[in-house]
UniProtKB/TrEMBL annotation:
Phylogenetic lineage: Eukaryota, Viridiplantae, Streptophyta, Embryophyta, Tracheophyta
UniProt keyword list: Fatty acid biosynthesis, Fatty acid metabolism, Iron, Lipid biosynthesis, Lipid metabolism, Membrane, Oxidoreductase, Transmembrane, Transmembrane helix
Molecular function in Gene Ontology: oxidoreductase activity, acting on paired donors, with oxidation of a pair of donors resulting in the reduction of molecular oxygen to two molecules of water
InterPro entries in UniProt: Acyl-CoA_DS, FA_desaturase_dom
Family: Belongs to the fatty acid desaturase type 1 family.
Transmembrane segments: 20-40, 46-65
Pathway: Lipid metabolism
Ranges where the Fatty acid desaturase domain occurs: 47-254
Cell compartment(s), UniProt: Membrane
Name by which UniProt lists this protein: Putative acyl-CoA desaturase
Keyword S-adenosyl-L-methionine among UniProt keywords: no
Domain of life where this protein originates: Eukaryota
Domain notes: The histidine box domains are involved in binding the catalytic metal ions.
Originating species: Rosa chinensis
């Protein structure tokens, strides 16, 4: 019944656009335009509001969407799992079903030798609102839960409600900084993990792809910039594997584990690290050549 949402196309700028593409473009353009007003509506209150929401909604992506839902790196009680997922919804990068489906596809592509990146948000297959879920074939574990199906069909409306709330509380400064500036930063940083971190940085693990560790995005993306670490051990709840690799998301997970809320926390063993270490592979190749 909703096939037309995906199948309808219109040609523009050398490509075909569907309803989802157009909606995504409108949202991106609107938020970037809103962010341009930031210098004219700056207050310290609105600035710290944006910073706080950036951390909360960013952790919603990294802790919930990515490590908990996409890779099942640890378990949480349902009430806490759903709460973190809702924080991710307010980042407006896609519903939990849509984001997790896209990310699992990303790993299938890189791990099978297709050296490309499938962006997390927004693209032809992830955008303003996904009404057609027939393609979400790799998230059956989540589709069985009514909560995630509800968020899948309603997720942009939650951010709209947040925007209304911010404007009601703090006027245009809160709206500009809490929605416009915050969302532009979230979009560019989250998309950079799957682009910049496949081009610039350092590889320390034999992953067979182009993933790299980038310290800057390790800081900006709450630990997600340690991308080569992640591709080496995608099941790991910790991505900043060295003590000096700042990983805010892991620190939160570790705290939840200490207080008994996070269980079945997965980490690579020392033996697994040795087998994956790039310098060990180089040594083996040199010995084979001798």
């Amino acid at each position: 019944m909703l096939d037309w949402v995906v199948k309808w196309r219109v040609g523009f700028l050398g490509r075909e656009w569907n309803v989802v593409d157009i909606g995504s473009a409108v949202v991106l353009l609107s938020l970037h335009s809103l962010a341009l007003l930031a210098p004219f509506h700056f207050t310290w209150g609105s600035f710290w509001l944006a910073m706080g929401l950036y951390v909360v909604t960013g952790v919603g992506i990294t802790l919930s969407y990515h490590r908990n839902l996409a890779h099942r790196s640890f378990k949480l009680p349902a009430w806490l799992e759903y709460s973190f997922a809702y924080c991710g919804v307010l980042s407006l990068v896609g519903s939990p079903l849509d984001w997790v489906s896209t990310h699992r596809t990303h790993h299938q592509s890189t791990d099978t030798g297709i050296r490309g990146e499938i962006p997390i948000a927004p693209s032809r297959d992830s955008g303003l609102v996904i009404l057609y879920d027939g393609r979400l074939k790799n998230v059956g574990d989540m589709k069985r839960q009514p909560y995630y199906k509800f968020l899948h069909y309603t997720y942009p409306f939650h951010s709209m409600a947040l925007g209304v709330l911010l404007y009601t509380i703090g006027g245009l400064p809160f709206l500009v900084w809490g929605m416009g500036v915050r969302m532009v930063v979230v979009y560019h940083i989250s998309m950079s993990v799957n682009s910049i971190c496949h081009r610039w940085g350092k590889q320390v693990w034999d992953t067979g792809d182009l993933s790299k560790n980038n310290w800057l995005f390790g800081l900006l993306a709450h630990g997600e910039g340690w991308h080569n670490n992640h591709h080496a051990f995608e099941y790991s709840a910790r991505q900043g594997l060295a003590w000096w690799q700042f990983d805010l998301t892991w620190y939160i997970i570790r705290f939840l584990e200490i207080v008994g809320l996070a269980t079945d926390v997965k980490l690579p063993t020392e033996d697994q690290k040795k087998r994956r270490a790039l310098h060990n592979k180089i040594k083996e190749e040199r010995l084979d050549l001798q």
